[in-house]
Amino acid sequence: MKKIISVLLTLALVLSLVPAVFAADEPTFSMSTDKETAGAGDTVTLTVSFSNNGAMLEIGGLNFEIIYDEEAYTFVSATPAKAYRPYFAPSKKGTSVGNGKLAVGGIIWTTSDYPIELEDGELATYTFKANDVAAGSASFKLDVKELNTHGTTPTPISNKTENSELTIPVTGGSVTPKGYSVSIPETKSVTTGETVEIPITISGKDYNAYSVCIRYYTDVLELQNNAVNNEGFRLSEEKYTDADYRPGSKITLVRYGDTAQPGKALSLTFTAKAQGTTDVTILRARVDERANSISFNAPDATITNKTTAVTVSGYTVSLPDDFTRTDTAGTVIMEGGNLTFVPKDPNYNYTVTVTVGGSEATTVSPDENGIYTVANVTGNVVVSDTKTPKTFTVALGDDTSGDPTATYQTNYTFKLTPADGFAYKMAVTIGGKVYTGFAPEVNDDGTTTYTIPGADITGEIVINSNKQVKPLETYKVTFAGTGAGDATGENTVQEKADYTFTVNKKDGFEYTVTATMGGKDATITEGADNTYTIANVTGDLVITIEKKSTLTMEVAVSEYVQMDNKTVFLVTVTGTPEEGKAYAYDGNVMYKTTAYGANAYSWLVIVAKGQEFTADTAKANITEASATAEEMAPSCDVNETKTVDINDAQLVYDIYSGKYGDFEKVTVKKFLCADVNSDKIVNSTDAVAVVKASE
């Protein structure tokens, strides 16, 4: 009973004060600072004050924020002016306000039994530290979100602010202005099922590389961009759920390569999945030019507009992949519209049912032109179908056998059993049109099986074997292997004739000779004077000659990078030099590259394009020097900054694109580091590997 009486008395007191609340002057909030400018590393203190409380001694709730430029300043601490106020809890909030700014604020919440007497004077002080940035203006803004009376039913109190925005420039920073900014549009409108394009614009000077991270929500939008790796570009996506349990996704876009001009860098295309509002937001961005890739990491770019607000409207159309709309494109339709569609593939028999706004399903039949129609749409449309593939007749040719019918999407095979002394030239028509996509497979018994993929069976099949008397064939001879250049022989041979060739064996090498005839292993007979013979040739010959050095030190050369008029060769030496010595090429101590083998040493040689450069040429320039070889392990830190980022990928790209014609700006070591996957060649796969490592 005492508690009830107390509540009634409190309510009566609050009601008695309401007219005085609005009769008194509006409470005033203000903000002041201890500095007009700040140098890098200086602290700035902001003070939030309160005045004109009047008769309103009991406050039930207060919420205010300070919006600040996070690039120019770092939030340090917040301190209440009255330590005895236990409900006063200023803190840094995680809510993004825009343009790289965050909010901090003080929140006072009281119970019905414990109001706060908010006195005139200081409420709290906020300390910030000036960052080492390029000189420029930076603003602070005070925003009072709410001020309520105390009681069981709090009432908003009208208030005002003075000196609500202060500008405190940062001076004397050592950081050079970045020169790049990134933005996306402020708003976009789209109907459900349609696509919306979000262009990403880079402003400033010419650039070579960028990395942009963007967030969107997957309950409303679906990304349509193909997330595959192309040379110089990569799109990766990470699904997540935010603090409000809303499904979202973070996209990371990476580009490196040739110089690009400011303007639209690329566009993201989304499909609107459902009606509602959502947003696409840039979380971070980095942009840089080629000149910095050798020794520096890419800097952050300024985000001038970070969020695109997207509005989605219209009725959804759920159409199976089997059909294409003829009234319009997309997955949305306006109220009262007629939905029309046709099958993508006419080689099926279809049964189609439709629901509109959750209504009972009805069967829809096509008109004489094969068009299905749902008239006067008044709700979301769902189309369903079942289908069965069509079957067609098959006309077989001379000496062929197979089933008399073929079914769409089921592979069809037929067999040719050749007669002795005859040749065949298989010809096929499907639906009256010439067809060449049948695949032959020669069987061990001399027959040939042909396969027509099921996807191509779209009409009546006619097979003509074109049987003719068979003339003698002329077969091609191909030499392959490391010793192919040491072979001498004709490049053709007549059917059923014997073929003889010579291997000009060189000292210091062991030779192994094998051959295939018509794709199958062939028998080779070795004769005198390094001659070899294959008897009764019945197919194309591929003769493989492998040679292996018998020397203790093995030297190998391979094309490493192509330039306009030059070729960079990789020279590798495998062996063990004398104790206290290392292999040297033309007086330069070679690098011990463990990626190419436990005892492998490497160097790079630039020669004119077309000039012969062999292992023997390289071996003549290799000596043992009294030195210790520097060991190199595979690494994505190509520019040796001890950090892997997009500039390492840019340097790899520039190396394999021939931007550097010598080793003056980019050393032999950095050239060797560019082969990050250790395949003895620098190409786009190395750049993609660097990008993956940087993520």
Structural features, described:
With 695 residues, the protein is mainly beta. It folds into 5 domains: 2-171, Immunoglobulin-like; 315-389; 391-468, Sandwich (Immunoglobulin-like), CATH 2.60.40; 474-549, Immunoglobulin-like, CATH 2.60.40; 554-694, no CATH class. Helices cover 8% and strands 47% of the residues. It is built from 5 helices and 59 strands. The protein is flat and about 115 Å long.
Name the CATH class of the largest domain.
Mainly Beta
CATH topology descriptor of the largest domain: Immunoglobulin-like
Number of domains: 5
CATH architecture tag of the largest domain: Sandwich
Terminal-residue CA separation: 66 Å
The stretches of 5 or more residues where confidence is low (pLDDT under 50) are 1-24, 83-100
In total, the number of strands is 59
Radius of gyration: 39 Å
Task: Name the structural class.
Answer: mainly beta
The tally of helices reads: 5
* Sequence of strands across the biggest β-sheet: 14-23-21-16-19-18
What is the percent of helical residues? under 10%
- Large-scale geometry: flat
Largest sheet: 6 strands, mixed
Q: Can you give the mean pLDDT?
A: 85
Beta-strand content: over 45%
